[in-house]
Structures are given as C-alpha cells and as structure tokens.
Amino acid sequence: MTETATLAPARTPRHDAQEAKLLLDVRGLRTWFHTRDGIVKAVDGVSLQLREGEILGLVGESGSGKSITGFSLMGLVDAPGRLRADRLMFGGRDLLSLSPEQYRQLRGKDMAMIFQDPMMTLNPTLRVDTQMIEAVLAHDKVSRKAARARSIDVLVKVGIPSPEERLLVYPHHLSGGMRQRIAIAIALLNSPKLIIADEPTTALDVTIQGQILFEVQKLCRELGTALIWITHDLAIVSGLADRLAVMYAGRIVETAPTPEIVGGARHPYTHGLISSIPSIHTRGKELFQIPGSTPSLLNLPEGCPFQARCYRADSQCLRAPPFAEVGPGHWASCWHQGVQA
Question: Which positions fall inside the ABC transporter domain (predicted)?
C-alpha cells in the first residue's frame, strides 16, 4: 500500500447483477468452537447471497470471523468447531448433506480458496510442477502435457517471470510473495465457480497486487466466477467488489452495494473503518482510531456487541438490534443507524 492509501473509486455494479443466477445462498451460518473455557461463537448467524460473476468484499478487523466464514463455506472446520446453518446451498447443491469425499471433489474444481499463508496450499516436499499438474488431473481428464501447459499459462497471468523454471523448484526456493502468487495460480487452475480469497495480496507489492486484482476481475467478468474477497483493507476492496459485507464479532452488521457503503455507511463500526483509512486529506493529521478492542467471543455483551466502542450507544443498545433494510439492498444492524455527517 502507498503512504496515502485512500479509498479507490467504488466498482460500478454489474447491470445484470440481479438477473444473474444465484450461486451461493447462506442463511443463519453458525460456527462455534466448544472449548474447556466455554463456547467461542466465531461465526454467529451469518447470512449472505452471491450471484454468478459477483464480487463480495467481506470486511472487518482481525478476529471478526471473516476467515472462519470462508473456512466454513469450504468445509474446512475441524473439531472442536461445529458448523450449523439454516440453509447452505451452492449451485443448487445442499452443502450440509455432502459427505467428506463429495466435499473434497467440490473443492479445487467448483470452489477454491486462496489462503493468507501460501504454505497452507503448498506442500514443501513436492516441486511446484507436481503440485499444479496434480491439481489439474484430480478434476480434469487431460494429459500431463496439457495440464503442464495450463499451469504455465496461469503462472503468467499472476505475474511470475520464467514460469517454466519456477515449475521445477520447491516452495522453499521461492520468496514469500512468489509462493503466494503460485498459491493464487493453483486456485485459478480449474476456473472454479467460486473463489474465496483470504487476504491473498497482503505479502505482495503494489504492482503485483494490482495485476492480481485485474486478473480476478477479468475471471469474474469473462467466466462468471463469483468471488468472496476477505480483507481488513477497505482501500483495496472498495475498487474491486460489487457489494460489501462488514463483519463484527462473528456477525454481519452492514451490507450494501459498494457505492452505498463508501458514500453512505449506516453503522458506526463501518464509519470507523472508513475514517481510519489514510488519505491526502489526512496528511499530517492524527488518524481516527476506533476506541477499545473487539469483545471476547467467549463472553459477548448482551445486546449490540459494538456498544462499548460506539459513540452513539445508549440504553437501547442493551437489546440486540434487528438486521433491517435501511435502503434498497442496504441492510444494517443498529438502533441509531444513519449517514454520518
């Protein structure tokens, strides 16, 4: 990021966004971790819908539940985590009814995830070509030569120089940024219907970051691939996503088309995130900080979980606010929602 990483112009929503087929339909997703100290409600009642070719930005501080939401959708939550949902549909299939083997067949082909740590994708004991070719052959009946050609093509797309040479090395021979680009390339190999990207460009420089963003937007536009981009960086996602969903303490507290969030956020937490982004207008000034810290997910307060940090909080906030529509396609969970002056 540059020194003055202001919000990018909000991406213009697709004109056919409402006509596109619904790909992902999640209602009441709950992922709780049952520990000796109590139940950690990492994801607590998340609902979201995603259409083909649509890009959703999932935004929030560390610990808000963004990554666990992604892991839950991919079926990658292990004990002591327990996943429940009122509805969890993907491409017309009920994910709650899939066996572990059926979920494994889905991952990598129709659903792919780009992890924040590339070594969660890459096997340190195998060469890059082995890992990429096997990822193709696991889901597509093509020759190894064709799989290798596809791997080289994808490596070029993510900005890796001399891709033929990079295929012959082991992950530990590469820099962290190079490993991340290869992990992104593996996710793109089979042109999945949905990609969940968990802060995948954090370790990359600005030039490569821009190239990756361009490629994923192109993929969504040309192939109808849907994308969930998980990040804490509104400056990046505001120019990428069609819609934003803001998470706090395991819940979505506001969601709307990106221009609506950037230009007229209704939840105080969203206001705080936007105000804390440096820009040319804040040069030389102290940046805004949201006071306090996120509450413990073991012991959430009654009512609104943001009340202890909120400048609008009053006695009404001791009751949980409803998640209500405050404008066309704009939902927020706050008793005192309103556009910040």
Answer: 26-274
Task: Answer yes or no: do 67 and 215 share one domain.
Answer: yes
User: Do 290 and 272 contact (CB within 8 A), yes or no?
Assistant: yes
Bridge-based pairing of strands 55-59 and 226-231 is parallel
Which of helix, strand or coil describes residue 277?
coil
Residue 58 has φ and ψ, to the nearest 5°, of: -105, 110
**Nearest alpha carbon to residue 317 among 297, 331, 333:** 333
> Which residues in the chain land under pLDDT 70?
1-19, 203, 338-341
pTM of the complete model: 0.89
Note whether residue 251 is domain-resident. Answer: no
**In this structure, what token pair is assigned to residue 117?**
């740590």
Region of 316 on the Ramachandran plot (φ > 0 left; ψ -120 to 50 alpha; else beta) = alpha
Question: Would 48 be classed as within a structural domain?
Answer: yes
d(CA 116, CA 178) in angstroms, rounded, equals 13
The predicted structure's pLDDT at residue 25: 97
Among 54, 36, 32, 57, CA closest to 45? 32
H-state helical runs in the chain: 66-73, 100-106, 128-137, 144-157, 163-166, 176-188, 206-223, 234-237, 258-264, 268-275
Tokens 């940090």 belong to which residue?
Answer: 309
Q: What tokens does 194 get?
A: 């949905």
Beta bridge partner(s), residue 43: 31
64 & 140 share domain: yes
Contact predicate 191/19, CB 8 Å: no
Structure tokens at 77: 């939550």
> Could you report how far apart the first and last alpha carbons of the chain are, in Å?
28
> Are 313 and 193 in a shared domain?
no
Residue 45 lies in a domain: yes
In a shared domain, residues 136 and 177: yes
- List the one residue out of 292, 252, 242 whose CA is nearest residue 272: 292
Query: Which structure tokens are listed for 162?
Result: 């001399």
- pLDDT at position 232, please? 87
What are the tokens at 7?
Answer: 């919000």
